[in-house]
Design brief:
This protein has about 1000 residues and is of the alpha+beta class. The strands form 10 sheets. Strands 1, 3, 4, 6, 9 and 12 form a 6-stranded antiparallel sheet that branches. Helix 8 runs antiparallel to helix 9.
Length: about 1000
């Protein structure tokens, strides 16, 4: 719903501005059509004979007009709708929204009457006037500068609408009888709410203490010369722990759903788990006091003094205080959340550069009673300045940062382009580069991304470039009047270090071996290994026997269980933060890109080493790849058939850790789709290994040949079945398998199989047509294969088509403020969209052309995930200055260990546009909206990352994202110097 409230077209006056001296009665008599409409209303609402006709649509949409209005003289009047309801209507309400010139909006809800032939005038069910809307965003609207109005459905399910609206007016005296009663109730409710606020404020003032358990100051900084921010943290989670269960007299074990609890002394003290019920999972706790939030927004809570600025010689109270607050963790099993609060103090006078200010904190419950802040934009950090925290190579052709801040309840921070910035040497303080900012997007400009055009940032965004700076060193960017970025390096190894951290993430996902020093700081016993008693059973179900969704596969696996154990089923990478499943598709999503990196940069691959326990004489990258591929090579049957993977039915039981798994695991029956996927990866691995270990390369090559030989005849039998034909992507996997096997063997029959379904036979191939084919990998593979193996015409087509995909990605990136890229404009904005750079296509184009524009575009699009974002954080543990602290890594959380290095989370998601239970689970309504200020669902998506352990849509991860990250950072590290 909130998403659509910001659907503001380019402002165009459709009526003259009305002066404040001229009270308004009629806003619209519907004598002109709507300027825009969206979702179920798009192109289906019309204006006929002076009536807006809302028919043949549901209540999930809206339409509006850009119209400049001054309603300030009518502030005490309520909006009204003159309408009639048709017989087909099942919707319960209609909404009116007004939007002002700064993007603030207010909404009133009108309950629809029974169907009838007569016209009636409705007023808001609440009785609210223009000053008292039912809902508002970004603060109180400026009634003197209304620029747009909208009619909207109420979004309560997909209900049919059959309504004609004759006029949008302001209520007249004739409507006063019904309004009087409603306004009386409204005044009573407001008075009750005011008393409640006053009581809470008085209680909070009386409760102020300062001690070691009090919240603490995290940072004090400026976002403008007259806006001072105070960031505070409150409470911390005390980690849970595992311990052996030693029975005591009187112990009781109680089953509660999926969990078994130990009751001791009449109290539940821990979950009991393990196959032998021999381990206790002791619950988490929370320490510290919460912030007394009623005090935060009160100007009288705060005051500043300065002996160096005459404007603050006496204690000075802010004009007003805005805030944003969100949880930074969750004490599981409770409704308690550690919080981060930011109070924005709007000051009566701009601060003086270089002056020190003492902030009186005695009236709020922080550990200290005062804090000194020096306003020095050349030295002091500010959340408003965002720079890539990984850093830059000296010859990176693009070095870009951004300036922006969203002030929560205060809305946008207005920023004018042309602000001066300087890149300052961190050690010497010397200015190494200077320039001026330019506008990326203002808050009232729309961005062209996946969903309907809108502004996703809810604030102005400036950008600055300092590409000519090539001297190695450590720097910060200072923006005039605001402050500095985090420090960053310009050095030859910056991308290499990030790449190594991400590769460590793969190691920390290994299954079937013990983890710990010297290879990892994360400690975990060997898990899921048959030799340790793990139950792994063969199933008769293959993924082609059931519907193409997770639940159908899991149910089919369990129903098809046999009594045959599978002792060879171990190893590979855990797919996610739990340990279920290990699917061949997850292997494919990483190995393909990692091997491509090794093919493009063989010398760099050989030079880039890190410690691994494997004994093969091969580069570390190939060792890590082989650990994954070998899991599936062990699953290959003697006749060549390949099995899809290893899985349980459902997520792990609460309290379980991977080495004490209590759920049975199953192995799929073989199928040709899995055979094609495996063939492509094993054949490509064989091609790369040839220069390091020919004998081992032959092992993988032979395995690939046997897999496709088993798969081909079975595929030819299955492919005509309607339910199989719907799985169009299997043909793409077969296409790539044949091409890679042709590369590895030179056997012409595999070239012929490739030619059967490649899109390169078209004169102008489109590599990405979702639902038909996606052949990006195969096209680039063909374009980079030895010329002796390729047809020159097809090779040139593959080259051109790959470059076209990069051009699409660049066009997408240029349409949004932070240069987020996607070569598929329909790519949903979730699950690694924000947290992993979508730059593979641009980097491939750079390799094919040598054109620095593709490298520059990739660098700009890499910045958001590397920390140049409104949160000033990366999404990969251990990379940059700040990163997620609570990824959904069950083994880490259960043992109280920090999340291991290199885990990259899903990140921000468009949970406003995607209201399914995964992206917007029910607990978001009951917790996140309640504790966040403003409500969580109103936050701008680029800043709406909630670092909460059990928010899978944001803090979960799957290993496919690791591969994209490693490819991007590895390419930027390995590429040759620019000439």
């Amino acid at each position: 719903m909130t998403l659509l409230r910001h659907l503001v077209a380019v402002l165009a006056a459709c009526a003259p501005v009305l002066t404040a001296a001229e009270p308004v009665t009629l806003i619209s008599g519907f004598d002109q059509p709507f300027l825009f409409s969206y979702l179920t209303w798009k192109d289906k609402v019309s204006v006929v004979d002076g009536h807006a006709v809302l028919r043949g649509i549901t209540n999930q949409g809206g339409a509006g007009v850009n119209q400049q209005l001054d309603l300030s003289a009518s502030a005490d009047r309520s909006p009204a709708l003159r309408l009639r309801v048709g017989a087909a209507n099942t919707a319960g309400a209609l909404r009116v929204m007004l939007i002002d010139a700064d993007g603030r909006n207010a909404t009133w809800t009108f309950q629809l009457s029974e169907a009838g032939a007569d016209w009636s005038t409705l007023v808001p069910a609440s009785g609210g006037d223009l000053r008292r809307p039912d809902a508002r965003e970004k603060g109180e609207i400026d009634l003197a500068r209304i620029t747009q109005w909208q009619l909207q459905g109420d979004w309560a399910g997909a209900k049919a609408m059959d309504v004609e609206v004759d006029a949008l007016t302001l209520a007249t005296e004739a409507d006063s009888p019904v309004l009087a009663e409603r306004r009386a109730r409204l005044r009573q409710a407001e008075e009750a709410a005011r008393r409640k606020r006053d009581e809470a404020l008085a209680q909070a003032k009386a409760s102020v203490t300062h001690g070691p358990q009090s919240p603490w100051i995290e940072a004090v900084y400026a976002v403008a010369p007259d806006i001072l921010a105070v960031a505070m943290r409150a409470q911390e989670v005390v980690p849970g722990r595992l311990e052996p269960y030693v029975a005591q007299p009187g112990d009781k074990l109680a089953q509660d759903g999926r969990y078994q609890w130990l009751e001791r002394g009449g109290t539940r003290i821990a979950k009991v788990f393990g196959m032998q019920r021999d381990t206790l999972s002791c619950p988490e706790g929370i320490s510290g006091d919460p912030l007394l939030e009623p005090l935060v927004g009160e100007p009288s809570t705060w005051s500043l003094t300065s002996t160096q600025d005459p404007a603050y010689a006496a204690a000075t109270v802010p004009l007003r205080v805005e805030r944003k607050s969100k949880p930074v963790d969750w004490c599981l099993g409770s409704d308690r959340f550690p919080m981060r609060h930011v109070a924005y103090l709007r000051l009566p006078a701009a601060m003086r550069s270089g002056a020190a200010y003492t902030i009186d904190l005695s009236r709020i419950n922080l550990r200290q009673t005062s804090q000194v802040f020096v306003y020095d934009p050349a030295r002091a950090w500010s959340e408003a300045v965002h720079v890539n925290q990984i850093g830059f190579r000296p010859d990176d052709p693009a070095k870009r940062g951004f300036v922006s801040a969203w002030l929560g309840s205060g809305g946008r921070l207005p920023l004018a382009p042309g602000l001066a910035f300087s890149v300052i040497d961190q050690d010497s303080g010397a200015i190494a580069f200077s320039g001026t900012t330019e506008l990326a997007k203002s808050a009232d400009q729309t961005e062209a991304m996946h969903r309907a055009p809108r502004n996703w940032n809810q604030t102005d965004v400036l950008r600055f470039d300092f590409g000519p700076l090539t001297r190695p060193g450590t720097y910060r960017v200072s923006v005039a009047g605001i402050g500095c970025s985090h420090p960053f390096r310009i050095a030859d190894d910056v991308w290499q270090q990030a790449y190594l951290a991400q590769m460590q993430g793969f190691y920390n996902q290994r299954s079937g071996i013990e983890l710990g020093p010297p290879y990892s700081a994360f400690r975990r016993p060997r898990d899921l290994h048959p030799d340790d008693g793990a139950e792994i059973w063969q199933s008769t179900c293959s993924p082609l026997d059931v519907a193409n969704n997770d639940e159908a596969r899991m149910q089919g696996l369990e129903k098809g269980r046999t009594d045959q154990r599978v002792p060879e089923a171990w190893g590979g990478w855990h797919d996610a933060g739990d340990w279920n499943p290990r699917r061949i598709t997850h292997m494919q999503g990483n190995v393909d890109l990692l091997l491509e990196l090794a093919m493009l940069f063989p010398q760099w691959t050989e030079r880039t080493q890190w410690p691994l326990p494997d004994g093969q004489q091969a580069p570390a990258l190939l060792k890590e790849i082989m650990f994954e591929v070998d899991c599936f090579r062990r699953l290959q049957l003697p006749d060549g058939g390949m099995r899809f993977g290893i899985e349980t039915h459902g997520d792990p039981r609460a309290g379980d850790v991977s080495w004490k798994q209590t759920m049975p695991m199953y192995v799929f029956a073989p199928d040709p789709w899995s055979g094609f996927i495996y063939t492509a990866m094993a054949a490509r691995l064989a091609s790369v290994l040839e220069r390091h270990d020919p004998a081992l390369a032959a092992t993988y090559r032979d395995s690939a040949v046997r897999a496709i030989a088993w798969s081909e005849p079975r595929w030819r039998e299955l492919r005509a079945k309607p339910e199989i034909a719907k799985r169009w992507f299997i043909s793409d996997d077969r296409n790539l398998a044949a091409l890679e096997l042709y590369r590895a063997t030179g056997d012409q029959r595999w070239r012929d199989v490739f030619l059967e379904e490649t899109v390169l036979t078209a004169e102008k191939p489109d590599l990405f047509q979702w639902g038909k084919h996606v052949q990006l990998h195969a096209a680039f593979a063909y374009a980079t294969m030895p010329e002796s193996l390729t047809d020159p015409v097809l090779r040139e087509r593959a080259r051109r088509a790959s470059i076209e995909m990069a051009d699409r990605a660049i066009a997408y990136a240029e349409g949004n403020a932070f240069n987020l890229a996607a070569d598929n404009p329909g790519k949903p904005m979730f699950q690694f969209f924000y947290s992993v750079p979508q730059t593979v296509g641009m980097l491939r184009a750079h390799h094919l052309t040598g054109d620095a524009k593709y490298l520059a575009a990739a660098l700009r699009s890499t910045s958001f995930a590397a920390g140049a974002n409104p949160m000033n954080a990366t999404f990969t543990v251990g990379v940059g200055h700040d990163w997620p602290r609570n990824p959904l890594k069950l083994d880490a959380r259960s043992t109280g260990q920090p999340t291991p290095l290199g885990q990259t989370v899903y990140g921000n998601c468009d949970f406003i546009g995607w209201t399914d239970s995964f992206h917007l689970p029910p607990w978001v309504f009951t917790h996140l909206d309640r504790i966040s200020v403003p409500a969580a669902r109103t936050w701008p998506i680029p800043e709406a990352f909630f670092d909460i352990f059990l928010y899978p849509a944001q803090t979960e991860y799957t290993v496919e994202g690791f591969g994209q990250n490693a490819y991007a950072w590895g390419y930027l590290a390995a590429r040759p110097p620019l000439r």
